Amino acid sequence: MTYNAGDEDLRLDGDYVKLEDGGGDGGALCQAETLPSCGCDRGVGWWVKLVLLGLLAGLLTAVCIKWVGPFIMYKEIIPIINWETETFSRTKLALLVFGSLTIFPTLLLPSSPSMWVAGMTFGYGYGFLLIIGAVSIGVSIPYFIGSLFYHKIQVLLDRYPKKASVIRLAGEGSLFNQFRAVAFIRISPFPYIIYNYCAVATDVKYGPYLLGTLVGMVPEIFITLYTGIFIKTLADASEDPHTLSAPQIILNLIGFCITATATAIVTLYAKRRLKQLQMERGLVLK
């Protein structure tokens, strides 16, 4: 609806009106501001798709638990565990785990399988000490190798300023700010294998880099140790069902879900803090 009053137009198209200059006579133009859609008015089709998607996810989960999980457990995991325990002693396994965690980051290979083996063989205490010692060396080698290609890595980061803005946070501010930024980067979903080589190009000092890395990787280390212990428990129960009762299996599943949920919460918090640090420095993360 539009009202004309002299040189002024009042246009009512929605719940809001906006006053603007009408022309050279100094008149005012009121234009409607349409309310943005709140997204609450979803049709029946949307809910039907959501329900069907949930049913499909539940069906796939049931299939995995009933057939796929036991098949992989009997055909892959149990034979590997048996071969490992029969072939290597605990000392040799410790050396293998330590060596792989030291070399794999340099070769851009994932280290999670080695951490699983540490959990299955040594548990939380010795497994954590073994991993944290190996990781301190494994992340240091790429750092010093990256220093040899300092300028080339900087040129590469300059080509992607928006994506590189996250890791550049680690090289700014005091030593404590560098340590905090590195820890958040390690906890966040940012690929840490790539960051090992790129960190030196952000001018982050080695001390904050190493300490931030060790602190930031603690949640990942514990979730991988728990996963390894959980896999070993399921493998033992598959071979001898009497070793683990149904309530124990349920408690282990609940514990695994709680651990994974806690890790996800910490990861989301770290990602949020990284965005806040970027906003403080005038950076925009897409």
List the helices and strands and how they pair.
Layout: E1 2-5, E2 8-11, E3 16-21, E4 28-33, H1 44-87, H2 90-103, H3 112-138, H4 140-148, H5 150-159, H6 161-168, H7 175-187, H8 192-198, H9 206-216, H10 218-239, H11 246-280
Parallel strand pairs: 2-4
Antiparallel strand pairs: 1-2, 3-4
Helix pairs in contact: 1-10, 2-3, 3-10, 7-9, 7-11, 10-11
Give a quick account of the main beta sheet: strands, pairing sense, barrel closure: 4 strands, mixed
Give the number of helices: 11
Distance between the termini: 40 Å
List the strand order in the largest sheet. 1-2-4-3
Assign a percent range to the helix content.
55-70%
pLDDT below 50 for ≥5 consecutive residues: which ranges? Answer: 5-20, 26-40
Radius of gyration: 28 Å
Q: Helices and strands: which structural class? A: alpha+beta
**How many β-strands, per DSSP?**
4
Mean pLDDT: 77
Choose one word for the global shape: globular
Number of domains: 2
Q: Please report which band the strand proportion falls in: under 5%, 5-15%, 15-25%, 25-35%, 35-45% or over 45%.
A: 5-15%
